[in-house]
Write the structure tokens for this entry.
Amino acid sequence: MTTMTVPPGADQLRWVLSDSWTIARRDLLHWVRNPSVIISSVAFPVMFVLLFGYVFGSAIAVPGGGDYREFLMPGMFAQAMVNGAAATVAVVAADRARGVTDRFRSMPVARSAPVIGRSIADMFGSVVDLLVLVGCGLLVGWTTRTGLLPTLAAIGLLLLLRFAMIWVGIFLGLVVSQEAAGLAWAPLFPLTMVANTFVAPSQMPGWLGTIADWNPISATVTATRELFGNPGAGLAATSWPAENAMLLAVLWPVLIVAVFLPLAVRRYRAISR
């Protein structure tokens, strides 16, 4: 294994950032050469938009009134940000299985750079996914009604949720086998369904509605509905999580990052010894 001399202070930070960006570029080039990865990542949420917007949507009423497709789209945006973690798990686990991780650890690069670079590349991919979904939403009748700054704030909250889920995905990708990584979507699916993604928690059985209220995804969905000016922002405001959705939409992702970022970096360094 190559011996690395760690530069001190600010030089070390520049070294980590430079190596991280190099690895991020490598991952982004893979996407450019294989656009099917991006296409497959947005195909599922687009299908759900069409299914719930046009097939089931006519049978679902929004408490308080309003167009269901406008109610739906913030939930779809958040679901796509969370489900993106499955792709992160699969890519990281595949790199381990193919020996890419071993090659990185034998090179004179900062030991945290591969996971940081992965997170940077995934954030670029998430922006593309979100832009495609926004375009799809505009085509089916969704719109934002509050102006530029609230809209940008809503997009920022969605990307913050995605950033948190990236670190969950990186950690799991470093832990599970490549075969198990292919099933990473399985626990994410109920997580995104038992939330206010498609229906209000008040329309669920009491115990399930309580779980949905405290689901981190519900906080982001409620906050973005409010920032976009879409129907349903104030639903079930009798619960503390719903009344403080804007606060929780920031605190939940920050807490997830605070837990899983150090775990991911520590795990990568452990397998690099």
The mean pLDDT is 85.
